Amino acid sequence: MSQIEEIRRQVMWNRLISVVEEQALTLIRTAFSTSVREAGDLSAGVFDPEGRMIAQAVTGTPGHVNTMEAAVRNFLDVFPEEERLEGDDWITNDPWLGTGHLHDITMVSPSFYKGRLVGYFACTAHVVDVGGRGFGADGKSVYEEGIQIPIMKFADAGVVNRELLRLLEVNLREPGQVIGDCYSLAACNQVGHRRLVDMLDESGMDDLSGLAEFIFARSEAATMERINALPAGRYENAMRVDGYDEPLDLKVALTIGNEGVHADYEGTSGESRWGINVPLIYAKAYTAYGLKCAIAPDIPNNTASLAPFTVSAPPGSIVNAQRPAPVALRHVVGQMLPDVVFGALEQALPGHVPAEGASSLWNVHFSLRPAGGGQGRRAEVLMFNSGGTGARPELDGLNATAFPSGVMTMPIEATEHTGPIVFWRKELRPGSGGAGRSRGGLGQVLEIEAAPGYEFDFSAMFDRCRHPARGRAGGGEGGNGVVRLDDGTELKPKGWQHVPAGRKLILEAAGGAGYGPAAERPAEKIRADLEGGYVTEDEVRAKYGRDPAELQEASED
Amino acid sequence: MGGDRLSAARLGADIGGTFTDLALEVDGAIYSAKVLTNYAAPEQAILDGTKVVCERAGIDPSAIGIVIHGTTLATNALIERRGAKTALVTTEGFRDVIEMRTESRFDQYDLNIVLPTPLIPRQDRLTIGGRIGADGTELRPLDEAALDGLAETIAARGYRSVAIGLIHSYANPAHERRVREVLEAKLPGVSFSISSEVSPQMREYERFNTVCANAYVRPMMADYLARLESRIGELGIEAPLYLIHSGGGLINVETAMAFPVRLVESGPAGGAIFAADLARRLGLDRVLSFDMGGTTAKICLVDDATPRTARTFEVARTARFAKGSGMPISIPVIEMIEIGAGGGSLAAVDAMSRITVGPESAGSEPGPACYGRGGTRPAITDADVILGRIDPGNFAGGAMTLDAEASRSAVSEHVGSRLGLDAEAAAFGIAEVVDENMANAARVHAVESGKDISGYTMVAFGGAAPLHAQRLCTKLGVDRLVVPPGAGVGSAIGFLRAPFAYEAVRSQLVRLHEWDDAEVAGILSDLTEQASSFVGEQATRVERTAFMRYAGQGWEIPVILPEGAVDRDRLNEDFRAAYTRFFGRPIEGGVTVEVVTWSVNVAADADAAPPVGTRGATGDVAKPATRQVFDAGEGAFIETGIVEREALSPGDGVAGPAIVVERETATVIAPGWRAVMQDEGSLLIERVAS
Predict the structure, then answer these.
(1) How far apart (Å, rounded) are the C-alpha atoms in residues B678 and A454?
(2) Which of residues 538-557 of B touch A (CB under 8 A)?
(3) d(CA A379, CA A82)
(4) Closest partner residue to A532 among B123, B353, B555, by Cβ?
């Protein structure tokens, strides 16, 4: 390759990443789904004709990022070459072939240049409704969780499949918004395609094959260089989480070798009767995410940079759930996997990974209706909330911040416009950050009531209520989550429950754990925490072994 | 002012991070000066510079009829956290809104990410009982009894400024006003800012942050503006002082003192107005403003000689200009993207053996390696030297000799040797990567605005822009480029072209199927009255905009309202047309359409030079000198003509490959392109039809 050619390929790599970024932005601009547009629960990417991911938008969340990488090849298995037509858009929400639950719709569109198939654009979005029992853990099987869209054509050579739309119209509570999102997904791929055509025109390339090989070779080499710098060996870790009705053990054995890093979940608990099961495709996504964060955070996602990270799990375990297991809330368990992996990595790379955090999002789905069967507005409201992240070796954990998920929360003022609901409190939860040399991130407290004259049911999907985040290197536990009513009634952390008119639901999201012994925390940091009310005086006495009054005096001297 | 403004001299003053620029216009001629910014007494630099330009123009300061000022002081105070000791009073239960932000991380993969620190620390965030609902009704009365205690706390802790931000106050400001009324009476000398006045838009995180920022910089900015007003008076200037605001219009000193957050980003706004004015004079309806200086590049779309505006932006980004790493400010603002790409931006090689450029910058100290001031890492300027675009022996009009060897060794050591490239190829790689980054940013910006960039004309200004603009045009498919004169003080000149304008914005949800003519008319007349009161009697233009979406979407698109009463069906049609323009096709199936936010912009147009249009070449000039310059299209050095800009007369053509050299910069013209000197002094560079 000539020197100039080397530079042109580097520049086109940048361009391709910009192309998929435009693709993702289009989805955010047009989506109906709150989780896409407000929370960034989406992903977008470009693939070569063999279904290998060449580039992916930085915008997006890990659960989609890495699942979509595998999903596109499943589409190619269904459509033989002669059925891949210009103007096609292919769709599915199959949890095992797509991104892990029915609420995610994946759209793949073949991209043609000068009459020849040069690749695919794919994108995924979480939609507001898929029919069935709604977004909760209560389905006994995937059949109860909503309508299943097998891999099929949403548009055939540019003509939208009206029969599919009619089917969706009668099966969904919010057909307008979901169908709108299908159009948005197709539009987003279309934008990617148009930009790709511009890029090929300008660069004089006929297809992406040369560029793809360049990107793959560079990415693989860079990733393997990082992996080869790790001490080879086998590292194990286990973590217990709440589960639905009984605790779950998540066990991993990490093998680091010159081929890559393999995570095996042998010994992990079996499938749950409730919808918190995880298809393997999603378990792989969050495992690879955790590994990449710790080992190769700066290397862009593509098939080659993800390939060295492999995952296996026994079929029928909760992280390799088999059809037709219910999987709607697969994120609750799936988002715990980076913590499981970090625990093993800590042995290979001491002082590198954070302590355990709240990790699973504290999402809530509200179903509001007039109290006592009266007439009035009904509304479905979904909101995202985060607990605290685990403390880092040199830095405190992040207060009320999503990790590993990449989603954002919505403004309370916007949420209150979507239904008859009032939030009386959404605030940090003092004392919930695990003690340590670095303190864990604080969780948050929410107080929620139906507007006067209304009552609601809510779908609880919370973890770390009975098994809080554990500290690392001598750090303390994070505060456990609490779900209750304002009259003191304790509620379950999972499942649909009722909140009568006039009662407030109180959610105390879990905190992150601490890193290092609390005794080593510098006095001025404890003092600053006291001043801001991030820790309580009792906590300082009990967990840090310090007298708050003395700390205060010391600062005044 | 009206009549005075026409006849008298006009002074524009732009305080930037490094330089304070002055532009004085007397009878259509511009006199400019650049002096170092004085951090301790920013007004001093204005006075010094004013004396210089007045001397150059041969007028007495008392002849100045208007002073228009823009400054980064408010922005810098936010970035450097040098504001007043400020408290936030907010709704009970919502103490941490500005700290919890969006509960997300701006970088997905960095385990050691550091989130931006809230402007007001937790111990300075106080709460008060009482609650307004989403529809503006009172859910719980204000806790009047607690206000006494609140006042005592504020007095005891010595807060100089107080921000008041309550939930849903954009829908009903009664509680915010009452809190201010009670506290103001008890706390003389403390300044109060309320969110329903500073930024009456839905979304508590953005609104609270905006009112906090306003309160935080207010005492300092009020003091500064008062000092400035009295000092220019001492100089003999009796003219009124106006401030340029972030939306690109002018406001008087009293308004600026009350809402100093509106001054954030006023300097860059001047640059966009500069480009807009040029677009108007040359008759260009679609312009891409490209301003590239020492550390950053700014790109803005200017349609119909009007820069695009937005209702929210982010300042003080802490991490590599990453979206989400700063603080949101929701006020009308000229919408532009800023990326870390300037002459001083440094190049490196990443783990994938890819060249990266910026946002880290060598600044002016030590500067690029070729400055010979101790910089050893390669900057964009070093690449430009190696590629022959900058003549090392004639930099800044010969004021400085550059060390080309230092450029070569920096580029070779940090980029070339790591990739097996010679210095020339490595320099080409650096230039290509930065040009590509800027082109990508421009493209994404256009997508976000629903525009196709290829039909635009680029206007390039700032020291580094003319060196890179032409390549950028090629990458963007843009066929026309304008390099104006006076590009070095573009913002200050832009101030002189700014309209007296004010945009009033309010969130009020109106669904089309629940439309009420009277309600809509009421909203619009309130906003028009509010905006008009800032502009005064000279108002000549009123533009009303509805920000609309399908109910359920989270992103609104602007729809311009026609004059007179708003017709619902017409509005629905206009929305569908606008939506189609952005996203290809409207959504079928009876989804509700709604207006989320309303805005009214009232303007009195500045006195403007008449349009002149563009002209063709009367003939190509001879090129007195040549040298070898790298051409990105050819991928090789080619013989390139060198022409002095000062030597060109209107109508003179310069065929590429050529470089037009001027004191502050040089304009690169590629083969297949041709520059023509315009009557008003700009270079118009166009692709020659092949």
Answers:
(1) 70
(2) 550, 552-555
(3) 45
(4) B123
Phi, psi of A65 (to 5 degrees): -50, -55
How far apart are alpha carbons B121 and B103 in whole angstroms? Answer: 17
For A399, residues 6+ apart whose C-beta sits below 8 A from its C-beta are A388, A428, A433, A441, A442, A444, A534, B96, B99, B100
Rounded to whole angstroms, what are the CA distances from A151 to A77, A81, A94, A105?
10, 15, 7, 10
Give the gap in angstroms from C-alpha A328 to the nearest C-alpha of chain B.
22
On whether residue A144 sits in a domain, the answer given is yes
The Cα of B221 is separated from the nearest Cα of chain A by a number of Å equal to 28
Helix (H) or strand (E) holding B560: strand B557-561
Report the pLDDT value the prediction gives residue B609, as an integer from 0 to 100: 73
Chain A residues within 8 A of B92 when measuring between CB atoms: 425
Whether B443 contacts chain A with CB within 8 A: yes
Return contacts of B366-373, CB within 8 angstroms, 24+ apart. Answer: B368/B343, B368/B344, B368/B407, B369/B403, B369/B406, B369/B407, B369/B409, B369/B410, B370/B402, B370/B403, B370/B404, B370/B406, B370/B407, B371/B400, B371/B402, B371/B403, B372/B402, B372/B403, B372/B406
CB atoms within 10 A of CB B672: 15
pLDDT of B260 reads: 96
Q: What confidence score (pLDDT) does residue B552 get?
A: 65
Report yes or no on A233 lying in a domain. Answer: no
How far is Cα B220 from Cα B215, in angstroms, rounded to an integer? 10
Report the distance separating Cα B681 and Cα B662, nearest Å. Answer: 12
CB pair distance less than 8 Å for A37 and B555: yes
Q: Do the Cβ atoms of A219 and B202 come within 8 Å?
A: no
Q: Which of residues 533-552 of A touch B (CB under 8 A)?
A: 533-534
Count of CB contacts below 8 A, A vs B?
A: 219
**Contact indicator for B19, B48 with CB cutoff of 8 Å:** no
Cβ-proximal residues to B18 (8 Å cutoff; 6+ apart), any chain: B36, B37, B294, B364
Domain enclosing residue A457, as ranges: 354-521
Residues of chain B contacting residue A37, judged by C-beta atoms under 8 Å apart: 553-555
Residue A270 has pLDDT above 70, yes or no: yes
* Domains of chain B, start order: 2-78+225-266 (3.30.420.40), 84-221 (3.40.1360), 500-604 (3.30.1490), 619-687 (no CATH)
Residues in chain A with CB shorter than 8 Å from the CB of B100 are: 399-400, 409, 426, 428, 444
Average of per-residue pLDDT values in chain A? 93
For A414-428, how does the pLDDT look when each residue is reduced to its tens digit (9 = 90+)? 889 888 999 999 999
Q: Is A264 among the domain residues?
A: no
Residue A181 lies in a domain: yes
Q: Which residues contact B370 (CB under 8 A, 6 or more apart)?
A: B381, B382, B385, B392, B402, B403, B404, B406, B407
Which of A59-68, A277-286, B455-464, B539-548 shows the lowest per-residue confidence on average (mean pLDDT)? A59-68
Q: Are residues A212 and A360 both part of a single domain?
A: no
Retrieve residue B34's tokens.
Answer: 């650049």
Query: Which tokens in the block code for residue A175?
Result: 């057909």
- Which of A195, A219, A243 is at the close of a domain? A219
Q: How many domains does chain A have?
A: 2
Q: Is B440 on the interface with A (CB under 8 A)?
A: yes
CA–CA dist B438, A367 (Å, integer)? 46
**A74 confidence band (pLDDT: 50, 70, 90):** very high
Report yes or no: A372 and A389 within 8 Å, Cβ to Cβ: no
pTM reported for the whole predicted model? 0.89
| B440 to chain A, closest Cα gap in Å | 6
The stretch B199-216 carries a mean pLDDT of: 95
Cβ contact (<8 Å) for B351 and A226? yes
Which residue has better confidence, A239 or B292? A239
Among A188, A219, A250, identify where a domain stops. A219
